[in-house]
């Protein structure tokens, strides 16, 4: 603890200090120099802006609100997340997001300050939180940050923060939009009982229920809808996926942080993908409850030397995807089916090219063309099969 206090007072950043609950359950803020806890909050928010590629001066109001919501000095004095003064609103927002998604059948996002608070809790303070006995909160957390990968909307939430008035908002994708567009829309078909129930989430770890001055949504109230292109992958997506995997793997009522180096691995992985001239779209990773021996087949693909891909190998990988895809959640199954269908199309195209080659050169030896020799991007020599293999790896 003495070492942590000394480093904070020396002005080191949050990445240079082990601020986890494991290192020190309660850090005495009264022994810190004036302004040091605020500086820690500002450093964390600055990293979030840097990782999402948004200059702080382009969203100064959001930057300030994220620092205020985080209240990192308060976070240093506790080891359980629900004791933080901002946690009750986060718990309510999770259920509101779940209800809203079911009612509108749309992508839903929390506000940027809410997501920044989650990042500070699990990535920097690495706190724990307890769930209520009926498992509701844990289910919503897993669904929101695991299956739906809603941390991917962090850059969008930052950009539109000043326009959504601190409310949960709907996300609609349109790749032709350069910057997020915000408008209000009245969604029909809502039930008053469901909406009222969305704000009766029990306070986590307590027998009493919190009260909220104003719910995010009412019967007949208009929603804020954000139309945007799919944002680039950020490092916190993979980190939250790892946290959710640990929650599922533990099978108990505690949410714990992921390993300290997982965030750095996520950053390096993203940098490697983004350095490619044809980066892949951000795809919501699926969550598996336990490691599977069959995944070794996927690892073998990575270590095998480059080889020519013919229709048989493409179909073989498509069949293997079908087997693995049966264990995925419904949204991921649809994605796997789409990729399998495209792979089979390329397999058929490979056969057509083989037939054309045999007709043009009947006396010469036939050679199965590689995946670089066909398809709409053949002129640019893009390894189409390699791209589908990467999509396959991401879907698992």
UniProtKB/TrEMBL annotation:
Domain of life: Eukaryota
Annotated region (Disordered), positions in chain: 254-309, 347-380
Composition-biased stretches (Basic and acidic residues): 261-275, 347-361
Record protein name field: Uncharacterized protein
Organism name: Fusarium sporotrichioides
């Amino acid at each position: 603890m003495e070492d942590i206090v000394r480093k904070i007072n020396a002005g080191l950043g949050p990445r240079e200090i082990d601020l986890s609950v494991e290192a020190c359950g309660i850090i005495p803020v009264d022994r810190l120099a004036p302004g040091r806890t605020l500086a820690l909050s500002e450093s964390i928010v600055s990293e979030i802006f840097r990782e999402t590629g948004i200059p702080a001066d382009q969203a100064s109001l959001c930057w300030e609100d994220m620092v205020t919501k985080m209240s990192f000095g308060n976070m240093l004095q506790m080891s359980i997340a629900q004791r933080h003064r901002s946690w009750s609103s986060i718990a309510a927002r999770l259920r509101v997001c779940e209800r809203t998604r079911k009612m509108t059948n749309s992508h839903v996002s929390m506000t940027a300050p809410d997501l920044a608070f989650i990042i500070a809790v699990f990535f920097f303070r690495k706190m724990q939180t307890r769930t209520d006995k009926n498992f509701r909160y844990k289910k919503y957390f897993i669904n929101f940050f695991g299956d739906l990968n809603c941390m991917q909307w962090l850059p969008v939430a930052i950009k539109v923060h000043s326009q959504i008035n601190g409310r949960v908002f709907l996300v609609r994708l349109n790749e032709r939009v350069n910057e997020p567009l915000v408008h209000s829309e009245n969604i029909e078909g809502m039930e008053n009982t469901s909406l009222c129930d969305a704000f009766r989430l029990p306070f986590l770890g307590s027998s009493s229920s919190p009260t909220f001055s104003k719910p995010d949504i009412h019967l007949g109230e208009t929603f804020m809808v954000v139309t945007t292109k799919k944002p680039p992958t950020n490092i916190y997506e993979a980190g939250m996926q790892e946290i959710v995997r640990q929650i599922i793997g533990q099978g108990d009522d505690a949410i714990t942080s992921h390993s300290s180096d997982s965030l750095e691995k996520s950053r390096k992985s993203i940098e490697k993908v983004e350095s490619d001239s044809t980066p892949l779209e951000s795809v919501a990773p699926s969550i598996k409850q336990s490691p599977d021996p069959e995944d070794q087949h996927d690892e073998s693909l990575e270590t095998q030397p480059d080889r020519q891909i013919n229709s048989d190998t493409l179909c073989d990988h498509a069949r293997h995807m079908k087997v693995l895809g049966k264990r995925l959640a419904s949204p991921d199954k649809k994605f796997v089916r789409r990729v399998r269908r495209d792979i089979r199309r390329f397999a058929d195209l490979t056969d057509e090219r083989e037939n054309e080659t045999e007709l043009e050169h009947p006396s010469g030896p036939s050679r199965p063309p590689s995946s670089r020799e066909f398809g709409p991007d053949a002129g640019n020599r893009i390894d189409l099969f390699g791209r589908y293999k990467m999509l396959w790896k991401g879907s698992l």
